[in-house]
Task: inverse folding
């Protein structure tokens, strides 16, 4: 039940964040705005995660994990309700920023508790369970949100998110065990641990390596409808396929990460590059676009799993902080990708062009994974378990 509660948390957070691209067509009419401006509301959410994860987690290493999770889940539920009633696109940007603040810390602490329940030898599975909630939201939730926004409007879709976020809060309250914080840590120790070069190298690698997802997925609906000429009903099925891809990547990534998280990361980056090349070169052909999107969904999740475990290993003095920072880095990547895409699309270069910019950053991440500080000499899972 603990793991089910955390999977629900991941599902709701994934639904809230990943449904934003699926409802843009409804938001354009309701908020009297444009696709590129709505891209900045997605950037605002991601930046909330980037700011919130370290701001909330540093100094709270001693706090019990259960009360911390309850407060974070409650804050997220409150901001989900506020999203539904946002009157303007400017207010939506502000609310989405606030909604993002508890995201990284909430998933980070939940990942740590899940790893505690399962044991260190299955830590990849612990992260995968949280990520499965996120990715499962893309199989059922995001397509449903896109369909619901088409037949009603985007506010009804996000009302569903608000209800589910309250349910997630109740599940966290009911089932989270009393896992203590780290009595030996302090804010000063955590800040000092964040000064290491390997930690920041890992953060940079996650940010640039995961940016391809934000650059493409943030504009997936106009990519499919405008560039590929697909109908909204067909796009719903493609979004469901995307969710299956990310869930597949979460499962495969968890298994590969438990074998070798550095090897899994390199595999994920190579596959991401292949998908981005296909989208950039022939992303106006459905026969190429749809398989490339499936590959991108699988690849980015493999890389996500491995990079989170690597950062937690690097910041071993405070694994909860490490997990939270990994989610902050993932969302910095989303913000970078979405923002980069908004600028490129706003310049009139089309919905395929962001893939080329993301490809360059993916290449940088691969170089870091080969020769970067903290990547060349890493202890094995067996050594860590012992």
Result:
């Amino acid at each position: 039940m603990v793991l089910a509660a955390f999977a629900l948390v991941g599902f709701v957070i994934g639904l809230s964040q990943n449904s934003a691209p699926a409802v843009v067509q409804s938001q354009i009419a309701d908020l009297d705005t444009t696709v590129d401006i709505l891209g900045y509301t997605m950037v605002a959410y991601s930046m909330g995660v980037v700011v919130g994860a370290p701001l909330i987690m540093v100094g709270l290493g001693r706090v019990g994990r259960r009360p911390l999770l309850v407060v974070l889940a409650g804050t997220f539920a409150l901001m989900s309700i506020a999203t539904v009633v946002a009157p303007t696109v400017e207010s939506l940007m502000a609310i989405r920023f606030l909604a993002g603040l508890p995201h990284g810390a909430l998933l980070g602490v939940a990942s740590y508790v899940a790893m505690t329940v399962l044991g260190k030898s299955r830590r990849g599975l612990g992260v995968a369970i949280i990520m499965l909630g996120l990715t499962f939201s893309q199989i059922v939730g995001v397509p449903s949100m896109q369909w619901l926004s088409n037949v009603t409007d985007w506010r009804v879709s996000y009302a569903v998110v608000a209800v589910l976020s309250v349910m997630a809060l109740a599940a966290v309250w009911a089932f989270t065990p009393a896992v203590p914080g780290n009595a030996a840590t302090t804010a000063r120790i955590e800040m000092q641990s964040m000064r290491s070069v390997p930690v920041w190298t890992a953060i940079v690698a996650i940010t640039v390596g995961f940016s391809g997802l934000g650059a493409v997925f943030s504009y997936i609906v106009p990519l499919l409808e405008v560039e590929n000429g697909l109908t909204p009903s067909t796009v719903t099925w493609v979004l469901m396929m995307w969710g299956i891809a990310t869930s597949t990547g979460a499962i495969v990534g968890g298994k590969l990460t438990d074998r070798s998280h550095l090897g899994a990361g390199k595999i994920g980056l190579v596959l991401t590059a292949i998908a981005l090349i296909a989208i950039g070169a022939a992303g106006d052909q459905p026969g190429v676009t749809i398989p490339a999107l499936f590959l991108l969904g699988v690849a980015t999740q493999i890389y996500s799993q491995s990079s989170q475990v690597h950062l937690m290993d690097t910041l071993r003095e405070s694994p909860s902080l490490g997990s939270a920072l990994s989610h902050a880095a993932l969302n910095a990547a989303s913000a970078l990708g979405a923002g980069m895409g908004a600028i490129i699309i706003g310049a009139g270069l089309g919905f395929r062009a962001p893939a080329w910019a993301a490809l360059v950053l993916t290449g940088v991440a691969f170089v870091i994974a080969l020769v970067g500080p903290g990547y060349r000499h890493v202890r094995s899972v067996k050594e860590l378990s012992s």
About this structure: The chain has one domain: 2-385. The domain at 2-385 is CATH 1.20.1250.20 (Growth Hormone; Chain: A;). Residues 378-386 have pLDDT under 50 and may be disordered.
